[in-house]
Amino acid sequence: MDDEQKKREEQDDMLITGAFQHLLDTYSISRHRQKVDIITKAYNFARQAHKGVRRLSGEPYILHPIAVAQIACEEVGLGSTSICAALLHDVVEDTDYTTEDIENIFGAKIAQIVDGLTKISGGIFGEQASAQAENFKKLLLTMSDDIRVILIKICDRLHNMRTLASQPASKQYKIAGETLYLYAPLANRLGLNKIKTELEDLSFKYEHPDEYAAIEKKLASTQESRHELFDLFTSPIEQALDNMGIKYVIKERVKSPYSIWNKMHNKHVSFEEIYDILAVRIIFTPKHREDEINECFNIYVAISQIYKSHPDRLRDWLNHPKANGYQALHVTLMSKQGRWIEVQIRSDRMDEIAEQGFAAHWKYKEGGEIEFTEDEGELNEWLHTIKEILDDPQPDAMDFLDAIKLNLFASEIFVFTPKGEIKTMPAGCTALDFAFSIHTFLGSHCIGAKVNHKLVPLSHKLQSGDQVEIITSKSQHVQASWINFVSTAKAKAKIQAILRRDGREIQKQGEEQLRSFFTVNDIEYTTTAIDQLAVFHNVPKREDFLRGVGEKTIILGEKDIDELTGRRKETTGKGWRKFVPFFKTGKNKKTEEQGSSNLMVVDDKLNRKKPIFITDSNISQYKFMHCCHPIPGDDVLGFIDNKKQIEIHNRACPVAARLKSSFGNRILDAKWEMNKTLFFDATVQIKGIDHIGLLNEVTNVISRQMNVNIHTVNITCDDDIFDGQFEIRVHDREDVRLLIDNLKKISGLQEVSQIM
User: Fold this and answer.
1) Stretch 224-253: mean pLDDT, rounded?
2) Domains identified in the chain and CATH numbers
3) Is 94 a residue of the active site?
4) pTM above 0.90, yes or no
5) Average model confidence (pLDDT) across the chain
6) Catalytic residue among 93, 355, 402, 690
7) 512 catalytic, yes or no?
8) 12, 59, 94, 562: the active-site residue
9) How far, in whole angstroms, is CA 597 from its chain's centroid?
10) What percent of the chain clears pLDDT 70, i.e. is strictly above it?
11) Less crowded by CB within 10 Å, the N or C end of the chain?
12) Where are the alpha helices (DSSP H) in 272-366?
């Protein structure tokens, strides 16, 4: 046994030493000032601190900090300070060492970053306040102190995703959901395109393993034909660039599995119908760094003489870089094979920034070691917006996550102020969003806008290139309806804050009126009495009741005195509600109670790491949610709600995405074990060119060929375009797939898809 243990320790030692040597080799060829001594010191300290500890996968724990440091160095391009912080990032949380110990040995800067990373991991929160949301809030707060905290946290998340296989399925969904909802958009916002893509693909792989494997298989089977198309397409381009004397490299860019699945899912198309799987990237070294934008356009002129370009698909990110620093010129060309192919033209500097993002900017500044300064305008503006949202406490953790998420993945447009200054805004934003982006006062007193010198309402959606002038009035006040059409996080957060502030004032007025009412009628003012009246008026929350009194939507009178003093209790039964006809009573209520009594209530004995199995006999014990209508064959998960009952959601459902990122400890792995005995509703939509007998052909395929029962039909025909929705009864998702495949064979049908 001792020999076996010794052998294992020797193997571990070789593994650890090899991983650290690889890190040093990567660092030594980077552009940073060489500080190998402090990195080695941090490694030895971390190795000693984590000695004897192993990860779930069985490997020595120290390999995780080394791997995070490797990603920080190699894939994000960070320097010695960040590498040391990455090596030490779990020491304070997992061992007896403190932040003060780190500061004494490694200095204040490394200690500050390690402290920021420890804060994100730590913390105990109640069931209602989501631990993930609170941690994410801390993460964003530390960003404004030192952006390296978030960069290292993203490296940490990437390594956790790469080693997720050792975790139970319920934990995989939680971590993958949180990654897709928060960390991938955050990596995108910081310009870490390569890492963003890998995080998305790994999340997709664990959430939808079968669909991921199917797309990977199709990509592999079409690889040869893609290479052939790439070679034929790029051959004349290479010749033209050689003639121009440009030093370049042309790369083949293949759409990621997650992007392909997303497009199939959102546009209801098959893999074969996606035409932008292949893109071409031209990366050149400019002859003169200051002239690189002109050289991009010269390349564009040269290649557009070989191939016809698409007039609506020229994207100039050169003169107006994206908010995350991305610069390139995108053009779509028609190949000789009749396929549109996107070509991305960028310099080597632009390419490095596109892949490594925020950190790569500093490689092109004086001095080797990255120093994080305050001169990144767009990023600082974004951080400032986040800080404003954080400064105003949100009542609900999930509201907070949604507010942040609004700005993370938004594509951008450029709009001009009346003085001609350019502002970057998210696509789909309104005139009111623009007003709030300039100043809160301007937004809260906005009555309209002039867009390109024409008067438009607050809800008018802006387009790229619009010139916008905001019109205000001192008599204008924030309206609750505004929240429905603004789209930026800043505007939403400000409107909610003002409405909450106004609501508190109205609530205070209501409190004073109620106190006065109690005094006049000689009734003791207590919270129990207020709650009693709230129930009497059928208002669930005390705050809402007080607000109602303040707004005069609830008028206090004799009936309230009777309720409080109990004078009419024997005759009123349930108060005024007894006489309202739409309240469920008698038989209806009884059947409702019987229905809900079948639902399983989770106790503490349930092993949350093990999957729950949905069968024909126990299916009535679960709640199947209307947001995504899951049916057998769908990738699903369970969620323990506040009543300790289990909701079943489709894993791709937007509601499930929020639950995974906010209540990960309440997520369960769910699997189907059905025997095709029960029927479920599914809706299939078809579109095509109308002809005589088309409806007959469709119903023939559904009812006779497939033996599927049609529940309801809704058909419209406009200008010979046939549009129909069929609600059908099926056993599982496979029935739907087979039906769609057979319907696609009907002549004239252009689109066949399932509506979730």
Assistant:
1) 91
2) 15-166 (1.10.3210.10), 216-364 (3.30.460.10), 680-755 (3.30.70.260)
3) yes
4) no
5) 80
6) 93
7) no
8) 94
9) 36
10) 84
11) N
12) 292-304, 348-356
